[in-house]
Structure prediction request, 331 residues.
Amino acid sequence: MQKRTLGSTGPSVSALGLGAMGMSGAYGEADRAESIATVHAALESGVTLLDTGDFYAMGHNELLLAEALRGRDRDSYQLSVKFGMLRGPGPDFGGHDCRPEAVKNFLAYSLTRLGTDHIDIYRPARLDPGVPIEETVGAIKELIDAGYVRHLGLSEVDAATIRRAHAVHPVADLQIEYSLISRAVEAEVLPTLRELGIGLTAYGVLSRGLISGHWSAGRAAGPGDWRAHSPRFAAGNVEHNLTVVEALRRIAEAKGCTVAQLAIAWVAARGDDIVPLVGARTRERLAEALPAMEVALTADDLAAIEKAVPPGAARGDRYPTAFMSGLGVGN
Prediction:
């Protein structure tokens, strides 16, 4: 597994990371034993960056990772943890809380659930409109100084917020959705990251399976599957979006790889400062994703992909309307 460094101040991590959210019910019921086996397979293949959030199934995901990581050398992997999203006992979200006292409280619970004495990259999941980013970052800086956190990260914020945060403490990376059909980051955010020496960890590189090559128009999202509420999977949009996938499939077949591998390779090829996160929750999907890092895209390949999937090719927002206002950039 290749390595990439997250920005000028961040850690050296595997060039491909594993996002664990899907292992805790975001896309319907997941098999616990298979999830743990997938984490083990990822580690054994050289994946070191593991991403979670304390609100993923209200701590379930952190506890799952703790079980999967038990007995492993703590220096052999990096934990990236998001915090600040408020949940109730049902499926609804209740806003954000990134006050300094809340930051420290959330971290205390995460350390216990994960069974570790430190988090490698700690980040607010979204900007809290009621709390200046300087206050949130200041609290994380105190935790870094105390040894509980190694690096500061951000998630889904705009260029101005990145600059404000970075002025308080160096930011290692920004986690944000970036894929062939979600390219809003390219306008202002990515240039800002590169100017400041900040890395990017890209989630949603397969757009929650939509551009994986495995989704079909007649497929219905099962119980508990977040995609049932996603505009890009909605009737009228999904049919159009899958025509984009078929255009990619022709390029992938000519390249001798799968659609998923092509989509992951495209993100990885956008720069050595970008680390794609794959949300594989089975060993089968992980095994498909891993070879993507060996897919070398030529200038002709990139031109063909750009022609097949130009910016703005997808129909539908990347989140439901209620969530779009909390994002630093659009689609």
User: Anything to note?
Assistant: Residues 212 and 326 are 26 Å apart (CA to CA). The radius of gyration is 19 Å.
